[in-house]
Design goal:
Length: 278
Amino acid sequence: MNYRHIFHAGNFADVTKHVVLALLLKSLHNKTTPFCYLDTHAGAGRYDLASEAAQKTGECLDGIQRLWDTQTPPELAEYLAVVRAQNSAGALRYYPGSPVIARYFLRPQDRMVLLERQADECAKLQSTFAGNRQVTVRVQDGYAGLKAYLPPKEKRGLVLIDPPYESDREYEQVVEGLKVAHDRWSSGIYALWYPIKTRPPVERFHRALVATGIRKMLLAEFAPYPEDTSFRLNGCGMIVINPPWMLEETLQTLLPQLLKLLQSQSTGRSRLAWLVPE
Ligand SMILES: C[S@@+](CC[C@H](N)C(=O)[O-])C[C@H]1O[C@@H](n2cnc3c(N)ncnc32)[C@H](O)[C@@H]1O
């Protein structure tokens, strides 16, 4: 496995995923009772956009960099506050991955579990969160983690499933993993990220998700580029199961505005729909 998230950190797909993630985590503050966040594919946690790897692709230029010094919709405030907290000098240099974003939203009563299969990426997580009793970090297969850590004792919380999709088999693993997880814990919030290159694999994925019989699946797609080539990431999607109150309304307003900020030409599109309603 060669995937290294540093090459993609802060690109439009990271921005979309992390904007939704921040909204979901914030919604968990609506009760004082504790929640648990499980990240099955956690990555390295924090990325230096000035590193050789990040500079090589320059993907953040069409992502977070575009939101940095411009007026942005109020719905992005929490997400941008997390990114700004990593860049206290003012200039954009560090980009927070999902673990650092989730940490920002943990209250003293909450906790999180971070799973990452690559030992060197996991070592970075261990160093970032060393000594933090609210954070468990394991070198572990994320799909096995869905069995090992669910349901959480808090009975409230969020699971992020964000694999690299290096092979087509990954779609099947996500669907199988989700079924296992949902059988164990049907009331949890689940967020699944997926890439959009061309349409046919996405449609197969959606059909397989519908066939699980799981209900309350909200689908948010965001594609700044036309879906005309499989060589490039043209867009991405998030499936949110058991979305919190008002997420749909917030995304309805936000996604078109985000598209205006992140698309290069007017060829992009966003979509919000129920893949399976209640
Ligand atoms: C897209 S990146 C994660 C990015 C991170 N969630 C974020 O938003 O900042 C996917 C990560 O999953 C890891 N990975 C791949 N297969 C895995 C598996 N079966 N279990 C756990 N981690 C895996 C990769 O090493 C990579 O770091």
